[in-house]
Amino acid sequence: MSTLLTVDDALRQILGPITVLPPESVPTPDALGRVLAEDIVSRYDIPPFLNSSMDGYAVRAADVAGATRDRPARLPVMMDIPAGRSPDRPLNVGEAARIMTGAPLPDGADAVIPVEDTDDRWTPDGAAPLPEAVRVYRSAQPGDFTRAPGEDIRAGQTVLRTGAVLRPQDIGVLVSLGQARVPVVRQPRVAILSTGDELVDIDDELGPGQIRNSNSYMLAGLVASYGGIAIRLGVARDTLDDVRQRFREALDHQPDLIVSSAGVSVGARDVVRIVIDELGRVDLWRVNLRPGKPLAYGQVDGVPFFGLPGNPVSVMVTFELFVRPALLRMAGRNPDAVAMTTALTGEAMRSDGRRSYLRVRLVRQGDDWIAYSTGTQSSGALMSMVLADGLLIVPEGTLDVPPGTRLQVWLLRDLA
Asked: Could you tell me the pTM of the whole model?
């Protein structure tokens, strides 16, 4: 019997040859959640001109020095400057200009007085006539209620760095810079194949001994959640010819990864490994892991291949442990980024000596999380993953876990 690999050794072998995919250029509005492939350097100052941060009156600060409500400064209003228009002349000594938020200050003006600090009362529709003069009830310092050129971003400034996962605010900055397209890491394309004579699709009637092909849809969701593009290929029947044909179909889609479920164990009809030996190679098989020991990894015509077990919980656990890091590395993300915490076991638990990932729900008690089993730990009980807050990690060689044992938990949901 071949020696079982540890989880850590298997992961090192898998990630060793995996590299970041090449960049592609996409429209900036489509780049949300994508990984930036190059630094973004601004060609402009943002804002590009001195502008008002309030609705009010542009003034020279010296002209309103000492102004109060009891002793207002009275200035003739010489211009109306709405947002999107440039002043048509400079502001002379002793003058004011009505100005809207975001509008450029005229040459000569160095401050803005908010409208509420004047005797003017604007109408909600902005249609109030321009007054001949305005009384100002406060003094000002140069720069008051203005935004200087480059206050937010300077020309030549690196605003976003390679590897950033683009958020809505990042998209906003890119648009502000006039960056219509952005270089991002290409999304990994993942071909997904299920095997088994017993499988039918989501809307098919179940016959005797049949189950629905939940693994394919679950894997597609996992791929998408980690930034990949899922290519579902349907079900291969348990024959060499059908499995062989499905893998050739997978290669036609030019995937970056191929992921299959079932067919990699030691059953008489588990034929996936045989086909992989024909079309490529198996680099590792069987990991000291529960659930998910019958895991295969290798190459199919140069494309990395994961042969996951058939039971749905084993599929999810092995995907998270092995496929997820490979997918993240291809996408330019950190493959080690995992949400972890620690918890005290709230009840006695058992393992079989393999590194075990037990489905648990977590209950807050003081400063600690307390872990309780979700019930059956059968690898076919998918509902146990629905109920689980995380996977309690029982180290290799441990058989009995008494209550109150502190262990790591791989979080499956946000506990905030």
From this structure: 0.84
